[in-house]
Amino acid sequence: MEVDEDIVIVGAGIAGLTTSLGLHKLGIRSLVLESSDELRTAGYALTLWTNAWKALDAVGIGDSLRLQHELLDGNVSASTLSGLETSNTSFKVKGNNGDHEVRRVKRNLLLEAIAKELPSANIRYSSKVVSIEEAGFYKLVHLADGTTYKTKVLIGCDGVNSVVARWLGFKKPASTGRRSIRGSVDFNYSHGFEPKSRQFFGNGVRFGFVPCDDNSIYWFFTWTPSSQEKEREDSPAKMKHFVLSKLGKVPDRIRAVIENTELDNFIPYPIRYRYPWELLWRNISKDNVCVTGDALHPMTPDIGQGGCAALEDSVVLARCLAKALFDETSKESKDKDERELDEYKRIEMGLNKYAKERKWRSIELISTAYIVGFIQQSNGKIITFLRDKILATFLSGLQLKKADFDCGKLRIS
């Protein structure tokens, strides 16, 4: 069965839903294809920095999410070797784009808030894309269930294993050699921690946690395993024991966060990223196809910008695409083929404008995240000394600097 749809978005994650919402706010319908049979809410929480809140305000859902998530006051870093504090950075500062705003947001609440603003018919679940085919000015998107969508615009928001990114010529994201375990814990009482993120470095590990509210905490742990160590990921009990064994001189009160985490909440995953130079010679957009979010710029989690950058992408893409679609030349004295060619060229120019606007921002964030992670997790004596004695405050401040960005309003001139 072949179905005509002007704009098809692959993936109902942060990037896909926000792009669809941005277009919807501008009066343009799109269809989001999601391979799962319901909204994907895997992943407990993510930190949304100032730049993300600018994007959320642009699509009109910032205020509703603010009511559910408290502001974080700052970040405290310490050494697992000495137990001593190495930096204390306040988030209550002004940047070039106004006051900074940092909150830990539960992923399910974020996705539900976006989806709630969309017509239900804009999302089609159980829709796994298996292949993409060219058909003149259109793309044919073939699904596993036999359905084919004929579309004027194809947007890939389908994550690190993106089918659309592969069609554009991107390679699979590269392994950093690092692994991560993340988890969450819900206390039956107030945990008593201030609204600050906390990070600990040393002995080749990077550990941190962030309160989501008075009762719940999200935490993460990264390290570079040996080949023998990888088998422990099959056992949550072994993972828990391993994390506790690597915390060094972390205070008992903080160690209790791991001790109180249920085994089912220990989630391991490999840390992957896109080589930044790939964005220089690969096509972020080609013809009437483009990618956003993790399909475009998978990055390490070390500056917390993956989801934030996806929100930026979505606003910029919706704005560029809407302008291209609305900037219609006169239909007089044009036949059907000429009109289709004109629209195809306008869409191509709009996507190229989006790609140009997002290329260097993506390269900057991927590169910064990789370097910060390398320094923070390093076990070398020289880098450990520089990190703990000289660079700690700089690295913490770097997160604010990269978050001091405004993707602009959604409206088009």
TrEMBL record:
Keyword Oxidoreductase in annotation: yes
Pfam family, one: FAD_binding_3
Residues in FAD-binding domain copies: 6-335
InterPro entries: FAD-bd (IPR002938), FAD/NAD-bd_sf (IPR036188), MOase (IPR044560)
Keywords assigned by UniProt, alphabetized: Monooxygenase, Oxidoreductase
Record PANTHER family: FAD/NAD(P)-BINDING OXIDOREDUCTASE FAMILY PROTEIN, MONOOXYGENASE 2-RELATED
Protein name: FAD-binding domain-containing protein
Protein source organism: Castanea mollissima (Chinese chestnut)
